[in-house]
Amino acid sequence: MRLRGLQRGRALVVLLVLVTSCWIHAQSKKQGSKSSAGEKEPTLLSRQAFTQAGHFIDQTARPLERALFAFYFKHGSRDAVMAELAKFQNRDGGFASCLESDTRWCGSSPLGAMKALRILTELRVPAEDPRVKAVIQYLQRSFDHKQGGWHALPKEANAAPHASWWEVREDTGRCDVDSPVFPTAAIAGYLQPYAALLPPGYVKGITESSLTYLASAPLQMKMPDIESLIELVRLLPANQSMKGRRKLKHVLAAVVVEDSKQWNSYNVKPLTYVHSTSSPLYDGMNEGIAANLDYLISTQMPDGGWALTWSWKERDPAAWEASEREWRGVVTLENLQTLQAFHRIAP
Predict the structure, then answer these.
(1) Could you say which of 229, 255, 281 is where a domain stops?
(2) Could you read off the pLDDT of 253-289 as tens digits, one per residue?
(3) What is the pLDDT of residue 69?
(4) 281 and 343 both lie in a single domain
(5) pTM for this predicted structure
């Protein structure tokens, strides 16, 4: 009798264990489905929207941006991009200032050289390329040794239509955007792969002076200065840029606008200077960037492009019309590259 009672007891224990196990499994499954339902899938730019953006670029943008779009998204050739970029290079080796569409002057300037060098470094054009050698020779000739850097534009640029911030003052020879690090810091970054073409210590000197400026600069910096310094820091080896990265993270924490209601204005947004997860400034900005990516997708215009957040139409309506058209092509291409880098374009 005691043995049979023991067996019944064991059977009850087994049954209780089975029931408990089933209940736990059911609750776990229920919680898992709740969690899955609560997790929001990231918003993606649809294939149709991507196609519309590509059509906008092909129909509206400059040939240079069309070639860059083909290179990044259609297996286009680097030679095609270089052929279009070469059309902006002047006989003196410099590049036309109107590569920056807010100035319509086509004479050479450090500003034009900065714009061209960014493309040259992105395409990894070798130092042996004659176009690279020519622009570096131009930069050596236009360097202001007294100031230890470059002026964005010469006074001659005032003769062509331009935004007010590119007006070169007669008394200083500088425009409002000029500073000790704009455009010098960005140019220093782009010259890193070409340092051997310059005198010994040349690139090192302007790099160190830019990093010294960054170390003591206030957190509330002008947007061109931030961009120029970020370009330098992202192109330096990690051991050389570590302090600069830390400072720039503090700068972005102070200046980035988190309120999405203000993102239709010209200001620093989470994505303004962070264009991929490989950016040295990405960590700590994940949530803001995710929201900004959603916003970016939601603000695509019916024509496939994106609108601008600045204007100088009141200064020169006809010139602004041309500038706006070019800029929208540039911005649309940049937005597509950013969305691609964050895997936000539907397959």
Answers:
(1) 255
(2) 999 999 999 999 999 999 999 999 999 899 999 999 9
(3) 98
(4) yes
(5) 0.87
Residues 196 and 126: beta-carbon distance below 8 Å: no
Q: 28 exposed, middle or buried (CB, 10 Å; 0-12, 13-18, 19+)?
A: exposed
Which amino acid type is present at position 270? P
Three-state DSSP class for 201? Answer: coil
Beta bridge partners of 162: 103
Distance, in Å, from the CA atom of 199 to the CA atom of 206, rounded to the nearest integer, reads 12
Domain span holding position 207:
88-255
Write down the pLDDT at residue 40. 75
User: What number of helices (H) and strands (E) belong to the chain?
Assistant: 12, 0
Collapsed DSSP state (helix, strand, coil) of residue 284: coil
Instruction: Quickly tell me which residue has 């010259």 as its tokens.
Output: 191
Bridge partner residues of 144 (DSSP): 149
Q: Which residues of the chain, if any, have pLDDT below 70?
A: 1-39
pLDDT at 24: 40
Distance CA 118, CA 334 (A): 13
Q: How many domains does the chain have?
A: 2
Say whether both 266 and 246 belong to one domain. Answer: no
Residue 246 shares a structural domain with residue 163: yes
pLDDT digits (tens, 9 = 90+) for 58-71: 999 999 999 999 99
User: In the listed set 202, 223, 255, which residue is the last one of a domain according to the structure?
Assistant: 255
User: Is 130 within the bounds of a domain?
Assistant: yes
Find where tokens 């960037």 sit: 289
Specify whether 241 is located in the same domain as 263: no
